[in-house]
Amino acid sequence: MSMLNEWQDYLPDFLDGLVVTLQLTGVSLLLGLPLGLGLALAMTARRPAIRWPATLLVEVGRGAPALVVLYFVYYGLPQLSLTWSSFACAAIALAFTTSAYTADIFRAGISSIPVGHREACQALGLSHAKELRLVVLPQAIRVVIPPLVGFCILLYQGTSLAFAVSVPELLSRAYSQASITYQFTATLTLAGLVYGAISLAAVALMRARWPRRTPTITAGATRPPEPPTRTHPSWETTSERRER
Amino acid sequence: MKYDDHPVVRPLLALDGVCVAYRHHEVVHDVSLEVASGEVVALIGPSGAGKSSLLRAINFLEPPSKGRIVLDGAEVGGSRRSLDALRREVGMVFQNFNLFPHLTALQNVMLAPVHTLGIPPAQARERAMQQLTHVGLADHAHVKPGKCSGGQQQRIAIARALAMEPKVMLFDEPTSALDPELGAEVLATMRALAAEGMTMVVVTHEMHFAEDVADRVVFMADGRIVEENAAGKLMRDPQHPRTQRFLNAVRNR
């Protein structure tokens, strides 16, 4: 019972932290997703001069642990006289990581569209841009939404890394409360519950909206969509990966 | 128009020494072919003969590695503009239909007239409905391709190509993905199209279609034209041993 009473004391502060966590998630996605789509288009471009830099950026973004990127932005860039608030640093770092991971998800979605559809577009005289906008992307979006939602949930949990650069998000609040009361079990359990509640709600929402089913493929389309490869961020645990 | 009486002044489509290569592996060697306006040419031959590659080279889905393609007197080059002009005038129907599954039949047919030709949507819709009526699928206008049978899908694909009002229609084994019954309805549509005077180049394994509907049959093997003649003559009285072997094998199946 005592834990419930403590939670009552912590909750208002934690909810303030949750707001910061959600803001950080939102800003990271707002910046990261369009960039990810851009990188995916660049990675599938015909010209190597466009393809290679994009691929390099994505590999760096996925190869570097998010915490390293975060430290780089927070501690490294000021040495080049680029100084931002800790929130901005966290948002920039997480947006970069987001763009790298989602670029690969988008790329997999784009390459899941049968080559024949692109050939049909060419045979109909559609420009490359129209082929993407009217035929490839509308189909690819349907393929990538489930893995994207999965990534958003991981990013939401990953924002706890911003604790390391003292953004007052959910985990920071839990830690500072604990450092006053020494009730680590109670505070961290509550933080975990708050993270978990939002994540599970998001998963439930996704399942309701996009129930699992085999993608509809017309008789002519020969290749089933290629499953997105290596979409798990470095902070994802094995059990989470298995669940997905 | 029959082959026997075709003193063509200028062919609608002319291939001159066309080669097609994938990387450095050449699959079509030095093919020359002329197609008159209104003529139906069937390309037959064993798999791997280069029929589809040749057809795809005509509208530059597989740009020819050598040779010239002349459409209605204008040589098709690699430039964007000449390619655009070519694709407006050459319709293509694929073995796998390649309809866009996220769009309805009508939207599939309207897409290119609106976005390639720049026709106002209302007008394009009318044109698309005409073409769907033409292939007997007006009642399927608002259905997505996934809900249609294979034969219906291929007819929608034909309507989609026709909506561009092309001068030439290319068919790449249009019935190979269909069972014989559904294939028959597609062949009937193509037969009607031929009767209306559409210029057609058809890669096919349907020997009856080649014999009955085509004016001229071209037999290809190993990337070359082995023999070509008026449809009836080639099918009944092939001259080249390779053609005889192929036709015997097909007939005695």
What does this protein look like?
The complex is a heterodimer of chains A (244) and B (253). Chain A is an all-alpha fold and 244 residues long. Chain A has one domain (2-213): Orthogonal Bundle (MetI-like fold), CATH 1.10.3720. Chain A has nine helices and no strands. Chain B is α/β, with parallel strands linked by helices and 253 residues long. Chain B has one domain (13-251): Rossmann fold. Chain B has nine helices and ten strands. Chain B has helices at residues 51-58, 80-89, 105-115, 121-134, 150-162, 180-195, 207-212, 231-236, 241-251; strands spanning 13-22, 25-35, 40-44, 66-71, 74-75, 90-93, 168-172, 199-203, 216-221, 224-230. In chain B, strands 6-7-8-3-9-10 form a six-stranded mixed beta sheet, with helices on both faces. A four-stranded antiparallel beta sheet of chain B has the order 2-1-4-5, with helices on one face. In chain B, β9 (216-221) and β10 form a beta hairpin. In chain B, α3 runs parallel beside α5 (150-162). The radius of gyration of chain B is 18 Å and the shape is globular. The interface between A and B is medium-sized, with 23 and 29 residues.
Question: Keywords for this structure?
Answer:
heterodimer; A: 244 residues; mainly alpha; MetI-like fold; 9 helices; 73% helix; 0% strand; disordered C terminus; B: 253 residues; alpha/beta; Rossmann fold; 4-stranded antiparallel sheet; 10 strands; 38% helix; globular; transmembrane helix (chain A); transmembrane (chain A); ABC transporter permease protein (chain A); membrane (chain A); ArtM/GltK/GlnP/TcyL/YhdX-like (chain A)
Q: Predict the CATH topology of chain B.
A: Rossmann fold
Largest sheet descriptor of chain A: none
Kindly, what is the distance between the CA atoms of the first and last residues of chain B, rounded to a whole number of angstroms? Answer: 32 Å
- The CATH class name of chain B reads Alpha Beta
Q: Number of helix segments of chain A?
A: 9
Give start-end ranges of low-pLDDT stretches of chain B. Answer: none
SSE sequence of chain A, one letter per element: HHHHHHHHH
> What is the CATH topology of chain A?
MetI-like fold
Shape of chain B: globular
The CATH superfamily of chain A turns out to be: MetI-like
Q: Which pair has the most extensive contact?
A: A-B, 23 and 29 residues
Strand order, sheet with most strands of chain B: 6-7-8-3-9-10
Radius of gyration of CA atoms of chain B, rounded to a whole number: 18 Å
Helix content of chain A: over 70%
Strand content of chain B: 15-25%
End-to-end separation of chain A in angstroms reads 35 Å
Counting structural domains of chain B, the number is 1
Mean pLDDT of chain B: 92
Which class of chain A in CATH terms? Mainly Alpha
